[in-house]
């Protein structure tokens, strides 16, 4: 005996709904990681290396909006604690005028 296979009306809606749920959860995870990065960066109890790793997100616009002013401020904080990679980036920022007025003399000082 032949049985006709009946596809429920809901089945065509499941795949787009599942895809939307997966995409939304990915966006939510990104937003949460950006918020946690903001909280970590503002903490005064981080080592210069931790500050440097977190501030790269602001400099490169990775997981948070690119913000040269905030990046400069935090690179300065890490550089003041003697962290050489942060000093290098301060030199770049002074050289290119990112988040600060362009100043080749200060750039040279940070590169030394």
Task: List the topology elements.
Blueprint: H1 11-42, H2 48-60, H3 68-80, H4 84-96, H5 104-111
Helix pairs in contact: 1-2, 2-3, 3-4, 4-5
Can you tell me about this structure?
- The chain is built from 5 helices and no strands.
- With about 110 residues, it is an all-alpha fold.
- It has a domain at about 35-110: Tetratricopeptide repeat domain (Serine Threonine Protein Phosphatase 5, Tetratricopeptide repeat), CATH 1.25.40.
- Mean pLDDT is about 75; it is low at about 35-40.
> Gap between N and C termini, in Å?
87 Å
Radius of gyration: 24 Å
Helix content: over 70%
| Total of helices | 5
Structural class: mainly alpha
CATH topology of one domain: Serine Threonine Protein Phosphatase 5, Tetratricopeptide repeat
Mean pLDDT: 75
By CATH, the architecture of one domain is named: Alpha Horseshoe
Key words describing this protein structure:
112 residues; mainly alpha; Serine Threonine Protein Phosphatase 5, Tetratricopeptide repeat; 5 helices; 71% helix; elongated
What is this entry, summarized?
The chain has helices at 11-42, 48-60, 68-80, 84-96, 104-111. The protein has 112 residues and is mainly α. Helix 2 packs antiparallel against helix 3 (68-80), helix 3 runs antiparallel to helix 4 (84-96) and helix 4 runs antiparallel to helix 5 (104-111).
């Amino acid at each position: 005996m032949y049985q006709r296979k009946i596809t429920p009306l809901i089945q065509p809606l499941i795949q787009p709904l599942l895809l939307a749920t997966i995409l939304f959860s990915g966006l939510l995870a990104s937003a949460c990681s950006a918020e946690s990065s903001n909280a970590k960066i503002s903490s005064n109890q981080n080592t210069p290396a931790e500050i440097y790793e977190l501030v790269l997100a602001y400099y490169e616009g990775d997981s948070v909006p690119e913000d040269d002013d905030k990046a400069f401020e935090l690179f300065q904080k890490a550089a003041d604690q003697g962290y050489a990679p942060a000093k290098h980036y301060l030199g770049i920022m002074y050289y290119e005028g990112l988040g600060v007025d362009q100043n080749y003399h200060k750039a040279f000082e940070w590169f030394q």
